[in-house]
Amino acid sequence: MASSLGTLIEWYDFYIFGSLAVVLATKFFPADNPTAAFLSTLATFAAGFVVRPFGALFFGRLGDIIGRKYTFLVTLLIMGFSTFLIGCVPSYETIGFAAPVLVLILRLLQGLALGGEYGGAATYVAEYSQPHRRGYWTSWIQTTATAGLFISLIVILVTKTSLTAEEFDGWGWRIPFWISILMVGVSYVIRRNMKESPLFAKAKKEGKTSTNPLKESFGNKLNFKFVLLALFGAVMGQGVIWYTGQFYAMSFMQKVMNIESAQVDSMMALALFMGTPLFVLFGWLSDKVGRKPIMMIGMLLAILAYRPIYKTMYNSANMQGKEIAKGGLIEKRTGKAHESIPKDSLITFHTEKVFTDGFSLKKDSIVHWSPNGPIMKEGKAEAPVIKEAITVNADTRWLLIFMVFIQVVFVTMVYGPIAAFLVEMFPVRIRYTSMSLPYHIGNGVFGGLLPAVATYLVTSGKASGRADWFLEGLWYPIVVAAVCLVIGTIYLKTKNRNLDMDEV
Predict the structure, then answer these.
(1) Nearest to residue 226, comparing CAs of 53, 57, 61, 438?
(2) Please, is 137 exposed, middle or buried when counting C-beta atoms within 10 Å of its C-beta (0-12, 13-18, 19+)?
(3) What tens digit of pLDDT does each residue of 180-201 get?
(4) Are residues 299 and 147 in contact, defined by beta-carbon separation less than 8 angstroms?
(5) Contact 255, 22 (CB under 8 A)
(6) Cα–chain center distance at 74
(7) Backbone angles phi, psi at 282, to 5 degrees
(8) What is the reported pLDDT for 339?
(9) HSE on the CB side for 432, CA within 13 Å?
(10) Any stretches that span the bilayer, and where are they (predicted)?
(11) Which of 122, 214, 345, 492 is buried most, with the most CB atoms less than 10 Å from its CB?
(12) Percent of residues in the chain assigned helix, strand, coil, to nearest 5
């Protein structure tokens, strides 16, 4: 519980940025190009993933020399303070390009901290576990990533409902970042009183710990072969499936389907809540039938199902052919957005349509208005910024929840057993370092780049006029998972023997 709580809080800190990506794009980047601002936010989000392998090397080395407990105490504090400070950074309008630079630096610190956290927590729990129950106990650590995302969505929803839209947009979005400092304080007090891992303590007492974990992990050809096998045969595919089933699903509903963000948050939270117990189920099952069969089947199902799932999701919110309900059309001018130049202003026009099937469509157009009326461009009133959001009806809402839940099932199949799988590949003396690097390359690089790469592919597909442009982003996770599936099926052992490398 102590290990899981601390790791959960670190994931909350790390993912609150992704959960608020749509909002942060308007705060820390120029607002004149919303698509470019959102892609820049996703790139900053991805930067935290890219540096995770470096955190794995740095803190993994400390964990194998000094100990598991003290290392993940340090990572907890770095993560907590970095998250809190992101909530304090002034907006782009206030300090210009210094805003995205500061956020990027803090995001990199978050990535380094997380690179050291996961390997320490998973190793710590595994070294306390009985060999025949290692999959079950480490699966509790596996729940923390999804639980951290779930809690981030809940905190955002509570904050949004407690404030007006103007208050949340103005300063309320900072509250989820500030809350992390309280959560980190509680977790630090709990972790400070934990004892060191018994296997590591025994190895240290007997003088069997490594003096150069990096050299032993990656300079030894046999061990390095296992590092590469772990990355390309399991973790790479697990990483893209994790982020597709959770972050890309959320981004797809918000940016591609244009569903109102609060409704997306509530649907994601419910799907994650229903799916999270399956991490423990598949971790327990991996103790019975082995790690490989469960992980490989999860990858295969995801590869085959992604395109049908996302096509169903997209078509469920299709607005064509819908009939407006009687009295369901409201159009009004909401007033000046702000003064742009003397005697000119930006006027916001709000249109809301309610349809007979319960759907609604809200659209805000900002028009440059002069004393003589709207400024025309090519015969039309210029509207440089358009905000559009769909609210789906109850039937569609439950369909989307189910579609996301299916993706979470794939996530639990590949992610639930992965910690026990990685721990059992490497000996105690270099375990922290050896397991952390492939895990964070697979998740941090291959998985972390998914939102930005997939969004770019969708944008390019739409610009090229492809009929199924909204499915283009799925090629990235499908190809990566397929490569991993082939390598893992051929080279990984068929059944787990529930043994440490030290016991073989």
Answers:
(1) 438
(2) buried
(3) 888 888 888 877 877 877 777 7
(4) no
(5) yes
(6) 22
(7) -75, -30
(8) 46
(9) 34
(10) 12-30, 36-59, 71-92, 98-116, 137-159, 171-190, 226-248, 268-286, 293-310, 398-423, 435-454, 474-492
(11) 122
(12) 70, 10, 20
Q: In this model, does residue 166 exceed pLDDT 70?
A: yes
CA–CA distance, 479 with 474 (Å, rounded to integer): 9
Instruction: State the first-to-last Cα distance of the chain, in angstroms, to the nearest integer.
Output: 29
Give the Cα separation of 189 and 116 in Å (integer): 19
| Residues 6+ away with beta carbon under 8 Å from 286 | 135, 294, 416, 417, 420, 421, 496
d(CA 203, CA 207): 6
113 against 282, higher pLDDT: 282
Between residues 165 and 421, the one the model is more confident about: 421
Residue environment code for 45-54, b if the CB has 16+ CB neighbours within 10 A, otherwise e: bbbbbbbbbb
How far apart are the C-alpha atoms of 206 and 212, rounded to whole Å?
17
As a whole number of angstroms, the distance between CA 166 and CA 170 comes to 6
Residue 345: helix, strand or coil by DSSP?
strand
β-partners of residue 393 are: none
CA–CA distance, 144 with 150 (Å, rounded to integer): 9
**Residue carrying the six token digits 């390359």:** 441
| Calpha distance 196→382 (Å, rounded) | 65
Instruction: Write out the two tokens for 154.
Output: 């809940």
> CA 394 to CA 502: how far, in whole Å?
54
List the structure tokens of 199: 């296997």
Residue in the block written with tokens 């400092």: 181
Q: Which amino acid type is present at position 161?
A: T
